[in-house]
């Protein structure tokens, strides 16, 4: 992987990129909707003990896969809601000409990894997505009580690839795969038990320490924020474990370009193909469950954080086909509150008083509309701040999964001579608004598909062991969906910028008028 780096900081910092590593050991369709008395979403290790439920899950997936691609309740259509490649659409069109009538702009490629969307959309959109998919799957299974299970990789004993999805169950005569949950386009070593996920990949301690739901920047807060429209920024939960699990499953399947049909990566390694893999769904139910657990924690207390503008929360940008084929279009606020969907998990606790049952517009700290400047120190001087791009380090570097890579970023100060009005505005703004320092890593390219992610540290002391408990840890690079050539410019397919808020770990030694600003 090669990239150049740019910082908006007034400090000389050492950037370390460290792999968190994987632990190598290396049906009937007709009934009243009111009859859907579904069960709680169960952990997969309990779900598989019930043969009837397992059979219903397989039957539901098989039924959906057998439907025409243009059918809103088909496997192809529902997977394409997340994302789909132009090549896959063209192939489906040859079999099902009705594909031409699908309003793809409204219903397909809706996963929030595109430009002009915020990282804070990720958890909210996926909650709605798996809810409507689950209802369609339930109807297709013929079991009105069926709910999606979740892959409980939070538990260290459940970090091998789920066996339910790994057994092809070939027909003894034809050798054709009979298990609709199996797909060979996965990291083979992982799927067949040669290694398991590590704590660095699947652990959740860091996200449960996060106290704010919305971040002041798009890479902070459990859910991220609305500070910019960079498709590559991730909130805490999306960055890890979500992204790293995708790459662990997608892995390295072969050589060449996945987009040229040479099968270099599994479906889960690419945004444009991920939802076509049945294991996608048990991964995402667990991501949603982790959100529900975080939502109920009160030590330390949870808060909404930097609440987005009212118009953002109350807008309804997404359209979903429900099991009845009715189009559902609700606001972000609606999906934030799980009670509106009546989805339950086996880990729910009666004493829970979730943060998301409160109104963010009355209990949170609001942020202004529009993009925030990189330093977030006042819209009246936004144009000046955007030009203060200090500390640029150019050149390319190759990062190895075997050892850390470090680079020094040169020190530069803000211009010493400013117009009187702008200078005074800058000084006044810094007194009242927290100063934000961000690190940009540009032009990140994945030359091959790897089952490893990379953590980013600033000013990590020499000889110190990298740890996400360290104050020097600022985030994890998102390699999920990076630079896949057939993605037509969507879903982070072009060389990208990943931004990290490093305000807590950088001390500014030079600032306006040579003052010393400490942002720990």
Spell out the key features of this protein:
single chain, 520 residues, alpha+beta, di-copper center containing domain from catechol oxidase, four-stranded antiparallel sheet, globular, disordered C terminus
What does this structure look like?
This protein has 520 residues and is α+β, with helices and mostly antiparallel strands. It has one domain (1-520): di-copper center containing domain from catechol oxidase (Orthogonal Bundle), CATH 1.10.1280. It has helices at residues 44-47, 51-66, 75-82, 86-95, 104-107, 121-141, 163-166, 188-191, 199-202, 205-209, 236-250, 279-296, 310-314, 332-336, 360-363, 382-387, 420-432; strands at residues 2-7, 13-18, 23-24, 195-196, 212-214, 303-307, 320-321, 327-328, 365-366, 392-398, 405-409, 438-445, 454-458, 473-477, 496-501, 506-508, 517-519. The protein has a four-stranded antiparallel sheet with strand order 10-1-12-15, with no helix packed on it. The protein has a four-stranded antiparallel sheet with strand order 11-2-13-14. A three-stranded parallel sheet has the order 5-6-9. Helix 6 (121-141) crosses helix 12 (279-296) and helix 11 (236-250) runs antiparallel to helix 12.
User: Low-confidence segments, ≥5 residues, pLDDT <50?
Assistant: 1-14, 20-36, 255-263, 368-390, 411-433, 483-495, 507-520
Report the end-to-end length measured between terminal Cα atoms. 31 Å
CATH topology heading? di-copper center containing domain from catechol oxidase
Q: Assign the CATH class.
A: Mainly Alpha
Task: Work out the strand percent.
Answer: 5-15%
Secondary structure: helix percent = 25-40%
In terms of structural class, how would the helical and strand content be classed? alpha+beta
According to CATH, the homologous superfamily is: Di-copper center containing domain from catechol oxidase
């Amino acid at each position: 992987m090669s990239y150049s780096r740019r910082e908006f900081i007034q400090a000389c910092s050492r950037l370390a990129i460290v792999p968190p590593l994987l632990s190598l050991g290396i049906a009937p369709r007709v009934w009243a909707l009111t009859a859907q008395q579904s069960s709680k979403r169960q952990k997969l290790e309990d779900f598989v003990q019930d043969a009837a439920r397992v059979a219903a899950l397989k039957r539901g997936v098989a039924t959906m896969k057998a439907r025409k691609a243009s059918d809103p309740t088909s496997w192809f259509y529902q997977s394409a809601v997340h994302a789909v490649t132009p090549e896959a659409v063209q192939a489906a069109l040859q079999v099902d000409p009705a594909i031409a009538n699908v309003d793809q702009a409204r219903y397909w490629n809706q996963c929030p990894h595109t430009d002009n969307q915020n990282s804070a959309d990720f958890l909210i959109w996926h909650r709605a997505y798996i809810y409507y998919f689950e209802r369609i799957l339930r109807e297709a299974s013929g079991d009105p009580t069926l709910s999606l299970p979740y892959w409980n990789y939070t538990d260290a004993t459940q970090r091998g690839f789920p066996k339910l999805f790994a057994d092809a169950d070939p027909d003894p005569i034809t050798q054709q795969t009979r298990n609709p949950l199996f797909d060979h386009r996965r990291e083979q070593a992982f799927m067949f038990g040669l290694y398991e996920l590590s704590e660095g990949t699947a652990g959740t301690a860091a996200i449960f320490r996060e106290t704010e739901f919305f971040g002041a920047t798009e890479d902070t807060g459990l859910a991220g924020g609305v500070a910019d429209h960079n498709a590559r920024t991730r909130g805490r939960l999306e960055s890890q474990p979500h992204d790293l699990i995708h790459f662990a499953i997608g892995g390295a399947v072969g050589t060449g370009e996945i987009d040229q049909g040479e099968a270099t990566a599994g479906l889960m390694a690419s945004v444009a193909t991920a939802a076509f893999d049945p294991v996608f769904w048990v991964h995402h139910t667990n991501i949603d469950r982790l959100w529900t657990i975080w939502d109920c924690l009160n030590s330390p207390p949870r808060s909404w954080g930097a609440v987005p503008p009212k118009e953002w929360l109350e807008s309804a940008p997404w359209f979903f086909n429900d099991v009845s084929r009715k189009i559902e279009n609700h606001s972000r606020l609606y999906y934030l509150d799980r009670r509106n969907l009546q989805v339950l998990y086996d880990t729910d606790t009666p004493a829970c008083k979730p943060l998301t049952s409160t109104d963010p517009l009355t209990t949170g700290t609001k942020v202004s509309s529009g993009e925030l400047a990189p330093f977030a120190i006042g819209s009246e001087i936004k144009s000046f701040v955007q030009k203060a791009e200090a500390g640029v380090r150019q050149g390319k570097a190759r990062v190895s999964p075997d050892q850390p890579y470090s680079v020094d970023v040169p020190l530069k100060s803000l211009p010493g001579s400013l117009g009187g009005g702008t200078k005074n505005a800058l000084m006044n703004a810094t007194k009242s608004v927290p100063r934000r320092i961000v690190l940009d890593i540009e032009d990140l390219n994945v030359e091959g598909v790897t089952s490893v992610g990379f953590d980013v540290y600033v000013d990590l002391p020499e000889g110190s062991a990298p740890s996400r408990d360290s104050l020097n840890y600022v985030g994890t690079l998102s390699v999920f969906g990076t630079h896949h050539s057939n993605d037509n410019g969507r879903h982070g397919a072009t060389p990208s910028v990943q931004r990290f808020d490093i305000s807590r770990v950088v001390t500014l030694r030079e600032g306006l008028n040579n003052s010393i600003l400490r942002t720990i």
